[in-house]
Amino acid sequence: MNIQNRLNEAVLQAVAWLKRDIFKPMLTSTAAWCFAAIWTTGIIYLAAIDRTDITLPSVCLLATIMFFCAITVAITKNEDKPKVQLSRTRLSLLILQIAAIALFICMTFYTSLMFHSIVDRHPIPVWPDIIRAFSRLGEQVFTNDIVANPTLAIANPAQYFLIPLLLLLLLGAHFRELGFCRGHRTLSVVALWCFVPACVFVYLLAFSRLSFRVLIRRWLSHLLINGFGEEFLFRGALQTRLRMLLSPSWAIVLQAIAFGIWHFAVHYKSMSINGITAVIMFSFVRTATFGLAYGIIFQRTRNLLACTVFHVVFNSLGA
User: Could you give the 3-state DSSP secondary structure of residue 19?
Assistant: First the structure.
C-alpha cells in the first residue's frame, strides 16, 4: 500500500509538473501558437498535394522533438536573468547588430541559391572574392580524406562565424553573450539528445556498416561545414540579439523560422518536391522544427556546446 501511495503521488507530481512547466507555458505563448499555425499550414498543404511520405514522418518528428524538449526542460532550470533596461545607445547598437546578422543570413542564403543554380549568378560585390580566398585556403589545408568538401571547410566557418563575430564585436556585442558563457547542465542535455544517434552509430560500427574512420570524417565535416557555424549564426548571434528585445519564446520561434527558410536551396535541390511553395512548406515542417529544438537546447543550456554537438551528430547520421 505504501508503494502504491508513493506511485500515485509521483504520478500526480508528474502531471502537475507537465501542466505547470510544459502545457501552461505553451498554451499561453503567442509565439508557440504562431509556430504551431505555420507548422500546421505546412502539414495541411503537403497533405493536400498528396505528400504523405513527408507529412507522416514530420508529425512523428515533431512529437519526438517535443518529447525530448520536455525532458530538457525537466532537467534544466530557467535562467534567472532580470530584464535589462537598454539605453538609447545600447538599443541603437543592438538594432545594428540584428541588421548585421540579417545581412549575413540574406547574403549566405542568396549565395546558396546561386551555388545550387536556383537563381542566375549575380554575385554580391567583394563578397565572392573573400569567400574564394577562404575556399582556396581550405583546399590547401584539408583533403577529401579528412573532410567531405575541403572548399567549404574554412569558407563556411568564415562566413557563418568568423566574419559575423568580428562585426558584432565591433558593433558592441560581448563575446560571452554570444553563446560562449558558462553552460548549464550541458553534458546532461548532450547525453539526452545524442543517446539515440549514438545507439545507431554503435549498431553501424558493430555490424561493419560504417567504419570508425568514416564516422570521424563525417563528424569533422559537419562540425566545420555546417554544425558550429550555423549554430553560432542562428542561435549564438540571432537568438541572443532577439532575446534582448523579445521574450525567450519569440526569440526561439523567429530564429527557427529563419533557419527553416535559410535551408530552402538545399531542400529545393535534394528533395523530390515540385514547386516553390511545397519546398517552403517542407522547410517549415522539417528544418524549422529542428531549429526550434536547437533554440530550446541553447536557451536551456546557455551556450552553444550542446546544440552544436547534437547538430553535428544528427547530421552525421546521413553522409
Answer: helix
Of 103, 41, 35, nearest in space to 280 by CA = 41
pLDDT digits (tens, 9 = 90+) for 114-167: 888 888 887 788 888 999 999 999 999 999 999 999 999 999 999 999 999 999
Task: Write down the pTM of the prediction.
Answer: 0.92
Question: How far apart, in whole angstroms, are the C-alpha atoms of residue 104 and residue 99?
Answer: 9
CA–CA distance, 155 with 135 (Å, rounded to integer) = 5
Which of 231, 240, 233, 225 lies closest to 165 in space, CA to CA?
233
* AA identity, residue 289: T
**Which has the closest alpha carbon to 279: 118, 105, 46, 113?**
46
297, 227 Cβ separation under 8 angstroms: no
Q: Do 128 and 197 meet the contact criterion of CB atoms below 8 Å apart?
A: no
Query: For residues 65 and 270, what is the distance between their CA atoms, to the nearest angstrom?
Result: 23
Average pLDDT score, the chain: 90
C-alpha 182, offset from chain centre: 20
Q: What is the pLDDT of residue 147?
A: 94
> Measuring CA to CA, how many Å separate 248 from each of 45, 83, 105, 298?
29, 11, 21, 11
DSSP 50: T
For 163-180, the DSSP string reads HHHHHHHHTT--GGGGTT
Tell me the pLDDT tens digit for each residue of 275-287.
889 999 999 999 9
Output 67-70 pairs: Cβ under 8 A, ≥24 positions apart: 68/192, 68/193, 68/293, 69/292, 69/293, 69/296, 70/18, 70/22
Element (H, E) at 252: helix 248-262
Whole-number Å distance between alpha carbons of 294 and 252: 9
Q: What is the residue-wise DSSP string for 177-217?
A: GGTTS--SSHHHHHHHHHHHHHHHHHHHHHTTSS-HHHHHH
How far is 255 from 248, CA to CA, in rounded Å?
11
